[in-house]
Specification:
The chain is mainly alpha-helical. It has a domain of about 90 residues. The protein contains 16 helices and no strands. Helix 7 runs parallel beside helix 9. The longest helix is centred in the middle third of the chain and has 34 residues. It is elongated.
Length: about 375
């Protein structure tokens, strides 16, 4: 609404309100009710004027925002609307400051594959983010954009694939074809490695191989399957199918070497990512029986408790850990959940993985 419309609303509101106030000077008692009728009429343009002056976020939902504005104008003439508009303006001009150490705001979700792949959102890789923005900017010269796309080819696929996928819908056909060719080359190379690993595994099984030899071959197939997920080359249903295949070959490797911690960790991550809580709990219990460091599996035990909505158990699992024992993206999580609650003693009491076998019987060396 322009300034002219706002002026008309303000003039109408003032005129109606002045007429209503003039009725109060009449000695006739009936004029008291006439004043309220006139004031109710004046509250309508006043409410609309106040609503238009609110910041856009406070104008929604429109029906309830207008109703609140009208109620304030009706119950508190002049001062009510002025107060609401002034408060809204101050809230808009002076937004609340977010504390840099507010870990509740910066803590990431406890999920295995919940890592953002958008390089524009990763300040630690600012040059890569600048290249991505240049490649996706249709306002730049084509030669600059082509050089930027070619620069993406030299980066890790996991970092560059999201940008290249976005370029597949670019209006410039040359940019689309270049992005598609880069992604296709990466996918073809990874597929060739996977097929070679599958042939090697099939040959070993045909020869009756077992033990570490068979385990390593199956693990390699599972890792290559996961590379499609890590690099962003598998999306949607294909991603789910790829993870199912990775879990299948991980089971084959575990059958050959049941106590291998790296395989137990891989199966644990896959189980959590696919919501297989029973298998994840079994992998955690088997990891506990090995010499694997608790700092490896405790975050995943916390993730399992998070997925099952056992939030108190999340606190108990992470409490013995320190922020410097985990990856940087999980440090805010540990700082939040390992912090003792008010009035709570600083003790370390791990949470149970199941009702039958609590973690409280872990040896002190593992805790």
């Amino acid at each position: 609404m322009d300034t002219t419309s706002l002026s008309k609303l303000a003039s109408g509101a003032v005129a109606l309100e002045a007429g209503a106030l003039a009725l109060l000077w009449s000695p006739d008692p009936a004029m008291y009710w006439a004043f309220w009728a006139g004031h109710a009429a004046a509250a309508a343009p006043t409410a609309l004027l106040g609503w238009k002056l609110l910041p856009p976020p406070l104008q929604r939902p429109k029906r309830w925002s207008l109703a609140l504005s009208y109620t304030v104008a009706l119950m508190m003439p002049v001062l009510g609307v002025v107060g609401v508009v002034l408060a809204a303006w101050l809230a808009h001009a002076l937004p609340a400051r977010v504390r840099r150490r507010d870990h509740l705001r910066e803590a990431p979700t406890l999920e295995v594959f919940a890592i953002s792949l958008d390089i524009e959102q990763r300040p630690d890789e600012l040059p890569a983010g600048q290249v991505a923005r240049m490649a996706r900017d249709p306002g730049r010269a084509r030669a600059q954009r082509i050089r930027a796309v070619l620069a993406l080819r030299e980066m890790a696929p996991r970092v560059a694939v999201p940008t290249l996928r976005a370029l597949l819908a670019d209006p410039d056909e040359e940019i689309r074809l270049l992005a598609y060719s880069i992604v296709e080359v990466w996918e073809r190379e990874l597929t060739a490695k996977l097929q070679a690993a599958l042939r090697e595994l099939q040959a070993l099984r045909a020869q009756g191989a077992h033990g570490p030899v068979l385990s390593r071959a199956a693990q390699q197939v599972a890792e290559l399957q996961l590379e499609f997920v890590y690099q962003g080359l598998a999306q949607g249903d294909l991603r789910d199918f790829t993870m199912d295949q990775a879990r299948t070959y991980c089971r084959i490797a575990l059958e050959a070497t049941p106590e291998e911690p790296s395989l137990l960790m891989m199966h644990l991550r896959l189980s959590l990512a696919q919501g297989a809580h029973g298998e994840a709990r079994d992998m955690l219990l088997r990891l506990r029986a090995t010499d694997a460091s608790p700092t490896m599996w405790r975050p995943y035990a916390a993730e399992l408790a998070w997925q099952e909505r056992r939030y108190q158990d999340v606190r108990e699992v992470l409490r013995p850990m320190h922020a410097d024992q985990v990856a940087p993206r999980l440090r805010p999580v540990v700082r939040v959940w390992a912090r003792p609650q008010r009035g709570e003693p600083r003790v370390s009491r791990p949470a149970p993985l199941s009702d039958a076998r609590p973690l409280s019987d872990i040896t002190e060396a593992l805790v």
